[in-house]
Each structure stands twice: as C-alpha cells, then as structure tokens.
Design goal:
alpha/beta, Oxidized Rhodanese, domain 1
C-alpha cells in the first residue's frame, strides 16, 4: 500500500481518472460530516456494533468492475480505518492500493479537535455535505 497526503491524492486522482476513490467511513459520517467530491461510499464498518463489513472487498471489486489492478484510493476520518481496509484489499488481490494520510478530518490537536492541522477539508480540497 502506498500513502499520499490529501493534496497529493487530489493531484493523483486528477492524473488517474480511472482510479476508484472510496470513502470507507460510516454512512452517517459520509453524509453528515461531509465527503470528498467524487468519492464513492463503501463502508468499512457501520454502527452500532462497528463490525467489519464482510463484503467490503467484494463491494470494491464490483466498483472496479472486477479489475483488481485498477488504482483504488481509500479515505476515512484520519487514515487508520483506510489502512486496515487497504490491507484487506491487498489480501484480496488488489495490486494498486493507496491510503490518504490524515484522512478527511485530520489528526487530533492538543484540544482533541480534528480539522485544525491537516486532512482533506483542512487542505481546502473539494468536498460536499448532505
């Protein structure tokens, strides 16, 4: 798995229009917190139990029409769940997996707040909120 900072990711996606951009956060996070424009939502976990979605790799495979060599870029809140999801994709035979460092909301600061030092939104990249 390769790792890209949010701005690097934005440029990578611009240069690789065939890449699948997958937001692995829960449906609630995706719609109510916001999401990168162009990202497809395939949850890695959902409340209330936060169990790993057993069909995650299969759902991503369907998104890429079965082409496991196609680039897949994963984003979550801060970059942890997307790493875990990326490992599962690699184990399932995906060969070109990327993780977005710092995720959509970024790392926690000294006051336990996100979005004040890094992340997709902090970098001013395109996003939407429903």
């Amino acid at each position: 798995m390769k790792h890209l900072k949010p701005r690097e990711t934005h440029e990578f996606l611009r240069q690789h229009p065939d890449a699948a951009f997958v937001d692995v956060r829960s449906e609630i996070e995706y719609f109510y917190v916001g999401h990168p424009i162009g990202a497809e939502h395939i949850a890695w976990q959902e409340p209330p139990d936060w169990d790993i979605e057993p069909e995650f790799a299969q759902n991503v495979k369907a998104l890429v029409a079965g082409d496991r060599s196609r680039p897949v870029v994963l984003i979550c809140r801060s970059g942890k769940r997307s790493v875990d999801a990326g490992k599962v994709l690699e184990a399932a035979g995906f060969s070109d997996v990327y993780n977005v460092l710092h995720g959509f909301e970024g790392d926690l600061d000294e006051h336990c707040h996100r979005g004040s030092s890094n992340g997709w939104r902090f970098d001013g990249l395109p996003w939407a909120q429903m």
